[in-house]
Amino acid sequence: MKPSYSIELIRIMNSRRDFLKQISGAALAAGITPLLAQTLLRAQAVEFPGEDDMILRSFRFVDLESPVEYFNTWLTPVPHFFVRNHMYEPSELDANEWRLSIGGEVEKLLTLSLAELSKFEVHSVVNTLECAGNGRSLHRPQVPGIQWGKGAVGTARFSGPRLRDVLQRAGIKPTGKHVMFRGLDEVPGKVPPFIRSIPVEKALDADTLIATHMNGSALTKHHGFPARALVPGWIGAASCKWLTEIKVLESEFVGNFMNPGYRFPNQPMKPGDTVKPEDTHPVTALTVKSVIAAPSDGASLKTGKVMVHGAAWAGEADVTKVEVSADGGSTWNSANLGREQSHYAWRLWNYEWNAGKSGDYTILSRATDSQGRTQPASPVWNPSGYLYNAVDQVKIHVA
Amino acid sequence: MWRKVAALCLMVLLVAPSLSAQAREKDQRRTNPTEELPAGPMQAKATTACTECHEARIILQQRLSKAAWTKEVDKMAKWGALVDAADRDALIDYLSANFGPDKPAYEPPRTADKIASGKSK
Hints:
The complex is a heterodimer of chains A (399) and B (121).
Chain A (H helix, E strand, L loop, with lengths): L6 H6 L3 H14 L4 H8 L3 E3 L7 E4 L4 E3 L17 E2 L14 E6 L5 E4 H4 L4 E9 L22 E9 L1 H8 L7 E6 L11 E5 H4 L5 E3 L1 E2 L2 E2 L9 E3 L12 E7 L13 E3 L14 E3 L6 E6 L5 E2 L2 E10 L5 E7 L7 E2 L1 E2 L9 E9 L3 E11 L22 E7 L1
Helix pairs in contact in A: 2-3
Chain B lengths: L1 H14 L5 H6 L16 H9 L5 H4 L5 H13 L9 H11 L11 E3 L9
Helix pairs in contact in B: 5-6
């Protein structure tokens, strides 16, 4: 565990560089031992109850990324599970006051309390949830948005009523083709509200949930307490948090986060080009992808056996193969796939590489899925940086 | 100068751990560990325009061309950012100069669940 230090200290030192310079200078001036100074140098954490050792992409509003070294367990512990918010979290959430309304193209309007919602049959789905923008920082040219590295993804067991059971109680009219979710996010300025919809077929899937629990505990506030949509295999944005309204619509919801937000070009495009909105479609299911959890990029290792391991997922498809290359892609070796599996969940994988000779190496990982898709060698560029899934790589030194 | 900084650091070292977790949780909004925008003629106006809704770190991590910054500024003005028409071009220049594609990547800090003792767990 990293040593950590107070936010007060960080406040004084505005920039990271100044912080480093000033703290080492101050430590020397005060006669503090070099060891203590070293401890302080590594101690640049920002206090965040319930969120441990996460990469702070934004404090206000909250966006946190998992360091990839935590992708070593099939279920990601909640304190290490990425958090993506488009705006402010609800300032007040009272489980007793909370209500979920179901309306639109239904026979009967429903309003459910948390107690009423909990009377529906509970179903659990182990799902790999990934932000559509995961890996955005790796696109060239760079595109605007939260500059996620590789860790806006995690896997958890989500539990709660099936969305279809709730919709069937309200009774969907034949005119109902899409299902809209609205959360309690608090909207700053004139930003459009975070409202999106999914097609009714996906809403009625037996694994689409109104989740109230994550890894066996009630959802935390950052993950959508008291209830969120859970649309398995799809981009995280489909799984609306702090759910308060479900509305059955005749057509796809019209709003910023459906169009122009969260859309992908219909045809491959030249990096840096622009695309007309009519030549795009909504981003839905995740694609095939693997990430190397260890060794870390830039690591120095000794010659001998090196366990290369990580996780691989494929949205609504299954991972069938993960391959590792230690020679920049000239030769590929099959990795072992972990025993734990579930339809929408990632597979852990490992490959024991014998680093026989010293030198600098590029280790690659490449996943293939049940739809025959394989990770591309280079990223599929698009203007918003969605669905980055190029072959993963880490550069290491062996001495 | 260094004596002042050192004294301040020591003061913080002594005082910070004694603050109760509850007090700090209450103070979280006031003591937001957020970033600041870089110095320049547009720093104050950019701070007003942008950080009303989100902290500066969201800007610090972008690496965009002038054309891309122009789109962002116009989008944010539409979404409520207070940008005087006379300041629009200067704001775009300020953002492009500081956060262009050639700048090194921004290095974010990490979070810690508890920062009570300053000791490693």
